[in-house]
């Protein structure tokens, strides 16, 4: 077992050691003074020694005997709006027993719990800190439960504490200018988007403007005001639709890279209409998705003279068609058929008179474009999306109506998927028969030839891809830190049994395991396949070592079904965890250098410097090929190991461990 310093690991022993040292110091002082000083000075020295001893005893008693109190937490209890990249702290008024304290946080987040602010190096800790490795999820209530809070002498009754806090909200929409359904908007207008909170790098905002106009989005210094700036004037008398969607992001706190893109949700969908020419109420069609037979419709503000309207109306390129004026205020031109993928200019020349003698003061000119080849307007997940849900349907929105069969037959997935199709307007929805694989990249392809119902068939392939979320599986195994410098195997067994509602102390379990007290003499030492080798409070590879899977499994079987194993793969371990079984594995800390010795009977013992055990309690990704492995480490707390780290450490003892059922 890895040594955590040469001093006995249990904090409570420092109190008794301090008292003992005070007595020894007093004795030495008494001896010296009786030898070197005359009687009066001897008495004075004795009194000073007693005062020093009493002062030290009072100090350590006041520090260590009362029950610890939590004097401050960061964030505070029930605090809202906690930043997503901050550490979580619990500050005690005096040292707290690490061996008895267990910690759970819901929901789980990758990171480490660390004890800090020691009175003496590595001992008597007064601060408990959680360092996340990725941003906390926004708009989320967290619950942190501390069980078994006790002072280091353990003379007070343990108590529990539960703290809740809520992380900051992801930005929401405050208002839009121009407002929804606003009319008379200038063609040179910019669109102002105001948020309830600074966006920074919390969320990915996506903007869509239809009819399509190229634009750019700029943010001010506060990150609460975004401006959508069209790169060309908006069309006159055109009704525009603005759609905004949002997806929250998770980032690696070390690299700031996006590691997950959350579900995309629509936060705004609204319309505004640009200003029309004088005397005109509306004009249609507009945009670049006009069907081949859509009529031109002009609505006037006054009753117009039909003959003049017909005479002054023109369209280019020329199109055959018929026209009429309805009730003197609605002019309709019905084309025989427009050409596909063509931009048309409709013009009503100035001077057209109304019944009251007024006239159109300027030319009315509008352009529109007919449908071209079938194209993809948008997809969900978006191309390049990270962390998509494994239960997500794939949605593809076309820019025009298409024949469903041709679209469904054009699509393929890699890896291959089976599922069912459904439709919502121009959107084809593919729902897989079973959840997608986690931590996987999916490539989607639609081949050319998708048939339009009133346009041109698609003339090129379309490809996009997305990555699925790394699904996390985790067991609620309580976390305990070890009570002795070399007792990681016993601490690991204690955690696994506690998960099965078997509550045993380290000392009770160690007594059942047994100790091989054979002193190390050169290359001869005890047998870890039979019992714990050396002193559990000793120094690794010098006066103490540890114990292997056989004795641990033997003791586990006294309370639960258990099995030892060797030669296992990562997938075998994770599949046990998937079934709900914690797995104790043998690894190493520090350098993990292989070595060996012989027992007094001559048996060769394979060993690793820094021998260590942890409890595998979960994994990120699939059980067959996890990206990360979650372990309860009796030295460090709950740790998320990268897969490469797990493979290296697990291989040190040829994939050995114990499953507790």
From TrEMBL:
Transmembrane residue ranges: 12-32, 44-65
Record carries keyword Transmembrane helix: yes
UniProt xrefs under Gene3D superfamilies: 2.60.40.3710, Cysteine proteinases (3.90.70.10)
Species, as recorded: Candidatus Collierbacteria bacterium RIFCSPHIGHO2_02_FULL_49_10
Name of the protein this chain belongs to: Peptidase C39-like domain-containing protein
Domain of life of the source: Bacteria
Domain SbsA Ig-like: 67-167, 170-257, 375-468
Keyword terms: Membrane, Signal, Transmembrane, Transmembrane helix
Residue ranges constituting the Peptidase C39-like domain according to the UniProt record: 475-634
């Amino acid at each position: 077992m890895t040594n955590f310093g040469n001093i006995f690991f249990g904090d409570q022993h420092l109190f008794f050691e301090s008292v003992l040292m005070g007595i020894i110091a007093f004795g030495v002082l008494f001896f010296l003074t009786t030898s070197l000083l005359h009687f009066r000075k001897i008495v004075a020295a004795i009194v000073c020694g007693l005062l020093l001893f009493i002062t030290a005893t009072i100090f350590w008693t006041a520090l260590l005997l009362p029950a610890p109190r939590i004097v401050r937490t960061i964030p505070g209890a029930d605090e809202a709006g906690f930043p997503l990249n901050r550490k979580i702290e619990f500050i005690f008024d005096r040292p707290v027993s690490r061996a008895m304290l267990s910690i759970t946080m819901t929901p789980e987040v990758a990171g480490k719990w660390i004890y800090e602010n020691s009175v003496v190096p590595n001992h008597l800790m007064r601060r408990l800190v959680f360092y996340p490795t990725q941003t906390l999820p926004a708009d989320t209530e967290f619950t942190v439960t501390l069980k078994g809070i006790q002072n280091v002498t353990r003379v007070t009754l343990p108590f529990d504490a539960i703290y809740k806090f809520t992380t900051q909200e992801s930005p929401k929409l405050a208002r839009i200018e121009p407002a929804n359904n606003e009319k008379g908007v200038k063609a040179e207008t910019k669109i102002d988007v105001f948020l309830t909170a600074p966006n920074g790098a919390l969320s990915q905002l996506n903007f869509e403007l239809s009819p399509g106009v190229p634009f750019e989005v700029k943010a001010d210094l506060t990150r609460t005001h975004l401006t959508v700036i069209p790169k060309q004037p908006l069309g006159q008398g055109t009704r525009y639709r603005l759609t905004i969607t949002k997806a929250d992001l998770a980032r690696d706190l070390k690299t700031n890279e996006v590691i997950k893109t959350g579900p995309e949700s629509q936060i705004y969908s609204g319309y505004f209409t640009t200003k029309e020419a004088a005397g005109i109420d509306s004009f249609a069609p507009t945009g670049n998705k006009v069907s081949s037979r859509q009529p031109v419709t002009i609505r006037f503000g006054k009753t117009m003279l039909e003959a003049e309207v017909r005479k002054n109306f023109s369209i280019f390129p020329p199109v055959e068609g018929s026209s009429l004026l309805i009730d003197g205020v609605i002019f309709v031109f019905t084309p025989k058929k427009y050409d596909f993928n063509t931009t048309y200019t409709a013009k009503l020349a100035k001077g057209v008179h109304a019944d009251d003698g007024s006239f159109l003061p300027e030319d009315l000119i509008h352009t529109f474009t007919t449908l071209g080849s079938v194209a993809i307007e948008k997809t969900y997940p978006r191309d390049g999306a990270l962390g998509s849900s494994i239960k997500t349907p794939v949605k593809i929105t076309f820019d025009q109506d298409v024949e469903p069969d041709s679209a469904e037959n054009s699509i393929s997935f890699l890896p291959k998927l089976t599922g069912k199709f459904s439709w919502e307007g121009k959107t084809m929805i593919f729902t897989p028969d079973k959840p997608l694989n986690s931590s996987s990249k999916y490539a989607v392809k639609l081949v050319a030839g998708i048939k339009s119902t009133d346009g041109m068939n698609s003339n090129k392939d379309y490809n996009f891809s997305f990555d699925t979320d790394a699904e996390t599986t985790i067991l609620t195994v309580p976390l305990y830190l070890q009570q002795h410098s070399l007792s990681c195997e016993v601490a690991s067994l204690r955690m696994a049994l506690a998960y099965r509602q078997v509550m045993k102390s380290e000392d009770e379990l160690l007594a059942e395991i047994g100790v091989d007290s054979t002193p190390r003499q050169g290359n001869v030492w005890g047998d870890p396949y039979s019992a714990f080798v050396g002193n559990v409070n000793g120094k690794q590879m010098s006066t103490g070592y540890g114990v292997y899977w056989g004795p641990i499994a033997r003791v586990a079987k006294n309370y639960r079904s258990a099995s030892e194993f060797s030669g296992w793969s990562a997938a075998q371990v994770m599949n046990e965890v998937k079934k709900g079984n914690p797995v104790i594995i043998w690894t190493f800390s520090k350098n993990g250098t292989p070595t060996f010795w012989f027992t007094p009977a001559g048996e060769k013992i394979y060993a690793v410097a820094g021998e260590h055990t942890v409890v595998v309690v979960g994994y990120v990704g699939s059980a067959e090929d996890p990206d990360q492995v979650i372990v309860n480490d009796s030295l460090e707390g709950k740790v998320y190991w990268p897969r490469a780290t797990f493979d290296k450490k697990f291989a040190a003892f040829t994939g050995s461990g114990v499953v507790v059922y």
